[in-house]
Specification:
Distance between the termini: 21 Å
Number of domains: 2
CATH architecture of the largest domain: 2-Layer Sandwich
Radius of gyration: 29 Å
Number of helices: 16
CATH topology of the largest domain: BirA Bifunctional Protein, domain 2
Structural class: alpha+beta
Shape: elongated
Largest sheet: 9 strands, mixed
Strand content: 25-35%
């Protein structure tokens, strides 16, 4: 195979040098003419007019039959057969000696139908506008290796139309989110990626050094705290769609850097936000799938029905056997071990509850629902229920055994917020790297006064679940271990 590849590369270099003797294989300007789908759409009219038209695209197939050459030319919009012949095509002999599958071509000529009725473009003139120097995998060995698909995603996109369509849908997904928020008068903003104190989530951050300021900073793990400062500053509805970074493990639902949307609305509570997000999600699904039902894995999910509210305490007791109103930290630790989990001793009550929940409760929540009213131990940034101060006004959008979004009534009491930050700091001192940090800047902002508000966050995990794929599959260029590092680990 290696010998074969070397031969192919050598032959392509020879063709390049041959073409260079006559023309520039990488011109700066191209008069493209029509998109190929437009050519196909207007084919009958163009055929009758007998006028020359031009198109440009990548040569995806090539069939040399001596005095005539057939090829398939493709751009993003579609494809067309091109035909070159010895008598009427400019520089036909150069075409025979230099053309390769993978070349980008500009082609000019008249449209016609072959005897078999195939729409075609008879080539009067042509030029290579970017010479291909490496064989497209499909030509000689295929692209089967999953890691190679991620590492060389451009080839995966080139060979698999369904993968190209996936990322078109992803763009449409975020367009739908953005347009829905703007329709509801949310202002889109951008907040800093570098932070002195990473906050807004329980996650281990990445650290970087800022040369100009001669100081270390963290990459943000959430969008939350800066957006809530904007509510202090007088804005009433804000949102951001941006990258966040969490130094945690990779699995089907988690990556270290991913896109997240967070929105905040003054004078809303979590009931208002639940109503809003249910409407948003249903709109996304109906638009992407032309309906309200989706087949995901073994499940057929109907998103149209009214989403029920599931009480966290009740479902936790049902699935785990523990009553959170009575269970001590010791009880939780014991239960976690019974479930085969390996809880570390420094974990606090909130983290133990979350571990047990993920093992016992989360997998049972298959149909869309709102999981509501969580223990205050698991959410240090949410407002307490007025009827029970041990719970918070928090909700998670659940379906297919995973979380698809989270929101709550925002805690705007600076005294209570400081108390909860200090509790988190104590957990950090015991060894919990993901516990939240005390953020004096945010507390100072709260002390100036933040209106009652509700916030919500969703990540691209929701899109991945809808597509029945891992989050990594839905990232155009997922981060990969370097080839040098891979070889080093293998001892090569």
């Amino acid at each position: 195979m290696e010998i074969m590849l070397k031969d192919i590369l050598r032959e392509k270099e020879r063709k390049l040098e041959k073409y260079k003797k006559h023309f520039n294989p990488y011109p700066a300007r191209v008069k493209r003419g029509l998109l190929i789908d437009k050519l196909n759409e207007d084919f009958s009219r163009l055929e009758k007019s007998k006028k020359s038209v031009s198109v440009a695209g990548r040569l995806r197939a090539l069939r040399d039959q001596g005095k005539i050459i057939f090829g398939n030319l493709e751009d993003e919009s579609g494809k067309i057969q091109i035909v070159l012949n010895e008598k009427e095509t400019e520089n036909f002999d150069i075409a025979k000696e230099t053309l390769d599958v993978g070349d980008f071509l500009w082609v000019s000529g008249k449209v016609f139908k072959t005897k078999r009725g195939e729409k075609s473009l008879f080539t009067e003139d042509w030029k290579i506008i970017s010479k291909n120097l490496r064989p497209i995998p499909q030509e000689w060995y295929g692209l089967e290796d999953v890691e190679k698909k991620f590492r060389e995603r451009y080839l995966d996109l080139l060979l698999n139309p369904e993968i190209r369509e996936l990322f078109i849908k992803k763009s449409k997904f975020w367009d739908l989110v953005r347009s829905h928020l703007k329709k509801e008068k949310f202002l889109e903003v951008e907040t800093p990626v570098f932070e002195s104190v990473p906050g807004g989530a329980e996650a281990e951050p990445f650290r970087t050094h800022h040369n100009a300021l001669q100081e270390d900073f963290y990459l943000r793990i959430s969008l939350e705290l800066p957006l809530k400062k904007l509510l202090v500053g007088g804005y009433e509805k804000v949102f951001e769609i941006g990258r966040i970074f969490r130094n945690e493990g990779i699995d089907r639902e988690h990556l270290q850097d991913y896109t997240q949307m967070e929105c905040y609305a003054a004078y809303w509570d979590y009931n208002d936000m639940m109503k809003f997000t249910e409407s948003l999600y249903k709109k996304i699904i109906k638009t992407l799938f032309n309906g309200t039902k989706t087949k995901i894995g073994e499940y057929l999910i109907d998103w149209r029905k009214k989403w029920p509210k599931v009480d966290y305490y009740e479902v936790f007791k049902k699935e785990s056997g523990l009553d959170l109103k009575k269970a001590s930290e010791s009880d939780l630790f014991k239960k976690a071990k019974e479930l085969g989990l390996i809880p570390e001793k420094h974990l606090g009550r909130g983290r133990l509850i979350d571990l047990i929940y993920k093992k016992t409760v989360r997998p049972t929540l298959v149909n869309p629902c709102f999981l509501v009213d969580h223990p205050v131990d698991v959410e240090p940034l949410a407002k307490r229920l007025s009827s029970d101060s041990s719970k918070v006004e928090r909700f998670q959008i659940m379906a297919l055994g995973t979380e698809l979004g989270k929101g709550f009534s925002e805690l705007n009491d600076p005294t209570d917020q400081r108390k909860r930050f200090l509790e988190q700091s104590a957990l950090r001192e015991k060894g919990d790297k993901e516990a939240q940090r005390l953020d004096e800047g945010f507390l100072e902002a709260l002390e100036y006064g933040m209106p009652p508000a509700s916030g919500f966050g969703m990540s691209e995990r929701f899109f991945a679940v809808l597509m029945d794929k891992s989050v990594r599959e839905c990232v155009v260029f997922p981060l990969m271990k370097s080839l040098a590092r891979k070889s080093e680990l293998k001892g090569e």
